[in-house]
């Protein structure tokens, strides 16, 4: 079965975030993509956690809306990673860093909200214009080739903003302050899954 990607894109547009939220999200993920340490932390966290009930609900929605398939009953982080081709699985941290850093440049990048879980967002990034991504990057369980990477995350947009720098403290940030801001960024964009999508 071949999925008509243009129809899927049009159907997803009704779930798109606002332009203001899109800009904020793209800025946040670009900061994350520009920091290999943060990306590696994100991948390590993904590998070490299992899906919550809320995560499963979002995964099911993505499978139905984008894959046009049912969520496999035995879905795990390992199963999702196995859907990537071996080359892309091996290069996941680099692929993820590049896609997060440059996704804002691509008009095909979609950010949608899961209607049942409004804090859950799906960042859908086309790999066709990303240098070094060599699409297709994987397949769905039903065998559809995937040229996009979906990043599923919980968006904590009401998280307290970092404090402004006081006039008497102008100058470079301390490493500990920088690390604290990076850690806070991981809680604002709490990634719980990566999956290839048609």
Protein architecture, described:
This protein has one domain. It starts with a helix and ends with a strand. The longest helix is centred in the N-terminal third of the chain and has 15 residues, at 19-33. The protein contains eight helices and six strands. It is α+β, with helices and mostly antiparallel strands and 198 residues long. Mean pLDDT is 84; it is low at 159-170. The chain has helices at residues 5-12, 19-33, 36-48, 53-67, 77-82, 86-90, 92-102, 175-188, and strands at residues 110-114, 117-126, 138-139, 145-146, 148-155, 189-197. A four-stranded antiparallel beta sheet has the order 1-2-5-6, with helices on both faces. Strands 3-4 form a two-stranded antiparallel ribbon. A hairpin with a 5-residue loop joins β3 and β4.
- What is the number of strand segments? 6
Number of domains: 1
The major pleated sheet works out as:
4 strands, antiparallel
Shape: globular
Widest sheet: strand ordering: 1-2-5-6
The proportion of residues forming helix, as a percent range, comes to 40-55%
Radius of gyration in whole Å, from Cα? 17 Å
Structural class: alpha+beta
Mean pLDDT: 84
- Uncertain spans: 159-170
Spatial gap, N to C terminus: 11 Å
SSE topology string? HHHHHHHEEEEEHE
Number of discrete helical segments: 8
For this entry, give a set of tags.
alpha+beta; two-stranded antiparallel ribbon
In short:
The protein is an alpha+beta fold and 198 residues long.
């Amino acid at each position: 079965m071949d999925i008509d990607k243009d129809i899927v894109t049009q159907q997803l547009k009704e779930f798109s975030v606002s332009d203001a939220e899109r800009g904020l999200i793209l800025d946040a993920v670009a900061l994350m993509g520009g920091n290999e340490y943060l990306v590696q932390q994100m991948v390590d966290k993904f590998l070490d956690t299992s899906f919550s009930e809320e995560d499963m609900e979002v995964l099911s929605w993505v499978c139905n809306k984008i894959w046009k398939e049912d969520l496999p009953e035995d879905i795990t982080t390992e199963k999702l990673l196995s859907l990537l081709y071996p080359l892309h699985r091996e290069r996941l941290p680099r692929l993820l860093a590049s896609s997060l850093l440059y996704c804002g440049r691509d008009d095909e990048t979609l950010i949608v909200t899961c209607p049942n879980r409004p804090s859950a967002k799906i960042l859908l990034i086309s790999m066709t214009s990303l240098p070094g991504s060599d699409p297709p990057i994987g397949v769905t369980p039903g065998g559809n080739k995937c040229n996009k990477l979906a990043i599923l995350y919980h968006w904590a947009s009401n998280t307290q903003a970092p404090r402004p720098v006081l006039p008497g403290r102008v100058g470079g940030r301390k490493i500990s302050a920088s690390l604290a801001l990076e850690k806070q960024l991981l809680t604002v964009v709490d990634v719980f899954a990566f999956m290839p999508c048609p």
